[in-house]
Each structure stands twice: as structure tokens, then as C-alpha cells.
Write a structure and sequence with these properties.
The protein is α/β, with parallel strands linked by helices and 579 residues long. The chain has two domains: 310 residues, ABC transporter transmembrane region fold, CATH 1.20.1560.10; 249 residues, 3-Layer(aba) Sandwich (Rossmann fold), CATH 3.40.50.300. The protein is built from 19 helices and ten strands. Strand 1 and strand 2 form a beta hairpin. The structure holds adenosine-5'-triphosphate. Adenosine-5'-triphosphate binds next to helix 10.
């Protein structure tokens, strides 16, 4: 556990060393103070009050040293706990923004929230409350046992053997709990995820008649958690019983052995009584250590989880980022990509989007269009081939340079629970209100502002819940316009937009295309027709054709099929394609 603490404290590990130093001083003073009681009691029982009183001085000094060390270590421990909690949040946050997006799976997100909130609190309180009793009790017990060997080596050896036995029993009982605790933690993460899902997806659940409080996946997770909790409780009771029983057995053995030594005249009775007093003091901390065992292990597990996150490899960053050579150009060069261990999503994908042109990506659902966007924005690294943005491989650019070149308009727009104006300002934090208003005008946000109760200052609710889907997309377009990046990745809405929204989106794409290279996942036929080039993907993630609308239609094949299906669905006729 202490090694784990050293890892997570990083450059501030000297704080732990200083803290531990004072804890060891405290434990040693405690142990020595206990040892001085032996000659003190022995002389008292022998009736030599003067000799007994002489031991009061070292005792007083040791108590004073112990008290000072106790105070200093408590202050150091508190500071270290506060620091480690604050610093851990920063370190976790800083590290997580460098991890590939693929790392943030649903389970992991639940786990990370546990680690960031409960885990860091737990680790902090371990530093403040548990390291001291564990280290100080261990040190004082060792000092007592070693000192005891000088008074009577036979009882000393017996107590060393007893301490080893107690340590083994403590280990066994805490290992017994380990598995149940891990399973309980997994169950808690699952319950957290299910509760969030239950709260967030109320609309879907109600629509499909699952609105009662007995949402089956949630009920199952809760039942599982209760089962594991019960098993854990039994194991922990058993562990406490085992520890308590073994302390009693070892203590009784010491008493019986001491009594035998006294009866057989092998030890002076006064010394034996003093040693018994010391033994009673010795087994107190030992018992406490055994009880702390499971807390310690839980804390070690939390530390391991935190270091697990901190040790996860970041997206590799180039040592020397390269200068951009071809602003606004996107090139995919024989790109292959596979998510985790699944089958390839993209195979040998190559195309170039030239500056100032619009490229439409079309293909069946699941053909990898969104994945191409993710690779361009380097949410993931390609499995094979290369993605070049601005003429340079995205792996040879730093994140800031890459992101500065890209604006992204996704379907699942995330709006923050802030005012409408601030949600647009995210596009360019230093933009003036006039610039925001101009972008909003082009994207068609201005009419929305008029409808909202507080106009520009209206909070749009968590995830933009105060706005409709079409309105959220217009806000997202306004962000992109405001950013005015050389490249725009635009994912058109799949759902039919009302004519007003449709007109705004079309006007916005035109406005974006004036200054930028636009790559659009096209769902609207008008966008496809207007594109400078169309990249057609098939359902295996291969590019099957590239060209303008008329060329592709003339060539026939996949694009002609796609066009026929879409025009039929949209109520267009093939003749309309000539528009
Ligand atoms: N994070 C992910 N982890 C694993 N597989 C994924 C992930 N995201 C997408 N996929 C899979 O990759 C394939 C391509 O998905 P992608 O979203 O790129 O397709 P798409 O062409 O954009 O689809 P649509 O038109 O329906 O949005 C699909 O089979 C999908 O299930």
C-alpha cells in the first residue's frame, strides 16, 4: 500500500517519507515506553521504590517524544491526505484527456466515476487515518518483542512465533474477503450504470411500456449486489471471529508458558507479572492490526485501480511535431481500422479531399463513415495506412495543432448546461458577441434566440434538453462557423428535418464550404448532388467508387443502387437526379 502511495504522490513523494519518519518515531517511542514499564513494575513489586522511580524519567521523556511525534505525524498525515485528494483529481483528469477515446467504454466510465470520487476520498482518508495505526503499531510491537527478548528470551521467542501466526491468520482472513469485495465493487459499478441508464432513458422506457420501478436490468443488478453484500458480510464476521480467537489463543499460550516458568522457578515472579502487563499491551495493537487488515487491502485495491488508470498508455504524441505543408487537405492513404478485437471496419480506404472542396461520404449504415471522421480527428489511431491532415500524418502532429484545423458538426451534439451564447462561444473562446451573433445568424440560431425566455442568456439545460434536435444541430453549426477552421467534418442529421431547419443546414454547408474543406456524411440528396466528389463505401468498409454525382450515376454499380433507393424513399424520381 505504501509503495502504491509513493507512486500516486509522484513528484511529491517526499511528503510521505517525512510523514512516515514521524510515524516510526511515534511507534518507537510507544514501544520503548512500554518496555520501561517492565523494570518499573519489577522494582515496585520488589519494594525498591527508589529504583522504580528512577525509571519514571526515561518514561516521561519517551511519553513527551511520543506525544510530539504523534502531533507532527497527525498534521503531516492530514496535509498529505488533502494534497493527495486534490492532486489525484488533477492527475487523473490530466491523464484521461490524453487517453484514446476507445478506452472510455460504458463500464469504464462507471468505474472511473467510482475511482475519481470514492477512490480518491478513500485513498486520502487512508493516508490520514490508517497508515498511522498500521505503521506505528507494527513498529511498537517489533520494539516490544525485541526488548522482551532481553528480559526473557523464551517468552520473547514465543511472542515472535505468536505474532507470525497472527499475521498469517490476518492475511488468510483478509484474502477470504478479497474476492467478495472485488465482486461487490463490480456489482456497485453495474448498479451505478443501471441507475444512470434508468434515469436518463425514462423517455425510451416509458415509450416501450417499461416505466415502472421494476426496470428488469436494474432490479437484477440490485439483487446481485444484495447477494454479494450478504456473502461479504458473512465472510467479514468469520474473519473478525478468526482474528479475535487467534489473539486469545496466543495470549493464553504466553500466560500458560509464563506460569509454567514461574512454577518451575525458571523466572522471577515480579518480572513475570511485569512481562504479563507488557504482553497485554502488546496484543492490543496486534488485534487492532488484524482488524485494519481488510480496510488496508481495500485501500490497496483502490490505489491499484488509480495507478491502473494513471499507467494506461496515452495516445502516443510525437517528440517533434511536423510543420503542416498543405493547409486544408485531407488524405486517407490505404487506411485499415479495427475497433478492439472485432473484424476490420475499414479496409484499404484511400481518397483525398482538396482544400475548398466538399466531399460527401455515402454508404450503408455501419460502413464506417463515422469511423473515418474519428480517425481524421485522431480519436483512434489507424490499424494500417495513414491519415494526413494539412499534409502531415495526424500521428506526427500535436493535438492542439490537429484540433485547430478541424471543426466538427456531429449528429449527437452535446450542449453544456450553460447559456446559449456560451455554448456557441466554445467554437472560439475569444470570439466577440458580434461574431457569435453573425455565426448564429448564418446557422439559423437567431430565430431560436427570439423564442427563448432569456434570449441569448437562456440556459439550454443538461445536454441541451431545452432545445429540439434540429435546434441543437444549428447551435453546433454556429460553433463550427465561429471556429472558422480550414476543415469541417459535418455529419448530417439522418432524421428528416423540417423545411426551415433543412434550409438553414444547406445554407450553412454552403457558407462553410466557401472557406473550408468540407467532409460530409451525407444523408440529404441535395448535399450529395452538390458535392465536388462523392466517396462511396460498401458494407465491408471498402471504397467502391469515387467521383461526381453524374459520373457515378453513369458508371452504375453501388452508387446507382444507393441513389435509386434514396430517391425512392424520399419520393424523388430518377429524373430528379438531373437537377
Ligand atoms: N466504439 C466502437 N467500438 C466497437 N465497434 C464500433 C464502435 N463504433 C462503431 N463500431 C462499429 O464499427 C462499424 C462502423 O460504424 P460507423 O459508426 O463508423 O458506421 P457508419 O457508416 O457511420 O454508420 P451510420 O450510417 O449508421 O452512422 C459498425 O459495425 C459499428 O458497430
Amino acid at each position: 500500500m505504501i509503495r502504491g502511495f509513493y507512486t500516486i504522490l509522484g513528484p511529491e513523494r517526499s511528503r510521505l517519507t517525512v510523514f512516515l519518519f514521524w510515524v516510526v518515531v511515534y511507534g518507537t517511542a510507544q514501544g520503548l515506553a512500554m518496555l520501561t514499564l517492565v523494570p518499573f513494575v519489577r522494582h515496585l513489586l520488589d519494594g525498591d521504590v527508589e529504583a522504580a522511580a528512577a525509571w519514571l524519567w526515561p518514561l516521561a521523556v519517551l511519553v513527551a517524544v511520543g506525544a510530539c511525534a504523534c502531533y507532527i505525524q497527525a498534521m503531516q498525515g492530514m496535509r498529505m491526505a488533502v494534497y493527495s485528494m486534490r492532486m489525484l483529481h488533477h492527475r487523473l483528469g490530466d491523464h484521461m484527456v490524453t487517453l484514446p477515446l476507445g478506452w472510455f467504454t460504458r463500464d469504464r466510465v462507471g468505474d472511473v466515476s467510482q475511482i475519481a470520487v470514492k477512490g480518491t476520498m478513500f485513498v486520502g482518508s487512508t493516508g490520514a487515518h490508517f497508515i498511522t495505526p498500521v505503521v506505528a503499531n507494527t513498529v511498537s510491537s517489533v520494539v516490544v518483542v525485541i526488548g522482551l527478548c532481553f528480559f526473557d528470551w523464551r517468552i520473547g521467542v514465543l511472542m515472535i512465533a505468536g505474532a507470525v501466526l497472527l499475521a498469517l491468520v490476518g492475511r488468510a482472513s483478509s484474502a477470504m474477503l478479497a474476492d467478495a469485495e472485488n465482486r461487490k465493487r463490480g456489482a456497485t459499478v453495474d448498479v451505478n450504470n443501471r441507475v444512470l441508464e434508468f434515469a436518463r432513458c425514462q423517455a425510451v422506457l416509458r415509450a416501450f411500456g417499461d416505466a415502472g420501478s421494476h426496470h428488469v436490468p436494474l432490479s437484477e443488478s440490485l439483487a446481485q449486489q444484495a447477494r454479494i453484500g450478504k456473502a461479504m458480510m458473512w465472510r467479514s464476521v468469520l474473519g473478525i471471529l478468526l482474528n479475535g480467537l487467534s489473539v486469545q489463543i496466543v495470549f493464553s499460550a504466553v500466560l500458560a508458558f509464563g506460569a509454567w516458568l514461574a512454577v518451575t522457578d525458571r523466572i522471577e515472579p515480579a518480572l513475570l507479572i511485569a512481562i504479563f502487563g507488557l504482553a497485554a499491551r502488546f496484543f492490543g495493537p496486534i488485534g487492532e492490526l488484524a482488524e485494519l487488515g481488510s480496510t488496508l487491502r481495500m485501500s490497496t485495491d483502490e490505489i491499484n485501480r488509480i495507478t491502473g488508470v494513471l499507467d494506461t498508455e496515452r495516445m502516443p504524441a510525437p517528440d517533434r511535431p511536423k510543420e503542416l505543408t498543405d493547409h486544408g487537405r485531407i488524405e486517407l492513404d490505404s487506411v485499415a481500422f479495427t475497433y478492439d478485437d472485432s473484424s476490420p471496419v475499414l479496409r484499404d480506404v484511400s481518397f483525398v479531399a482538396r482544400p475548398g472542396t466538399m466531399t460527401a461520404l455515402v454508404g450503408p449504415s455501419g460502413s464506417g463513415k463515422t469511423t473515418i471522421f474519428r480517425l481524421i480527428a485522431r480519436f483512434y489511431d489507424v490499424t494500417d495506412g495513414a491519415v494526413r491532415v494539412g499534409g502531415v500524418d495526424v500521428r506526427d502532429q500535436d493535438t492542439v495543432t490537429l484540433m485547430r484545423q478541424l471543426s466538427q458538426v456531429f449528429q449527437d451534439v452535446y450542449l453544456f448546461d450553460d447559456s446559449l451564447r456560451e455554448n456557441i462561444r466554445i467554437g472560439r473562446p475569444d470570439a466577440t458577441d458580434d461574431e457569435i451573433a453573425a455565426a448564429a445568424e448564418t446557422a439559423g440560431v437567431t430565430p431560436i434566440v427570439g423564442r427563448l425566455p432569456d434570449g441569448w442568456n437562456t440556459r439550454v439545460g443538461e445536454a441541451g434538453s431545452a432545445l429540439s434536435g434540429g435546434e441543437r444541430q444549428r447551435v453546433s453549426i454556429a460553433r463550427a462557423l465561429l471556429k472558422n477552421a480550414p476543415i469541417v467534418l459535418f455529419d448530417e442529421a439522418t432524421s428528416a428535418l423540417d423545411p426551415e431547419n433543412e434550409a438553414h443546414v444547406a445554407a450553412s454547408i454552403r457558407a462553410l464550404a466557401d472557406n473550408s474543406t468540407v467532409l460530409v456524411i451525407a444523408h440529404k440528396l441535395s448535399t450529395v448532388v452538390a458535392a465536388d466528389q462523392i466517396v462511396v463505401l460498401d458494407d465491408t468498409g471498402r471504397v467502391v467508387d469515387i467521383g461526381r454525382h453524374h459520373e457515378l450515376l453513369t458508371r452504375g454499380g453501388r452508387y446507382a443502387e444507393f441513389w435509386a433507393q434514396r430517391t425512392a424513399a424520399a419520393g424523388w424520381t430518377m429524373a430528379a437526379s438531373g437537377q
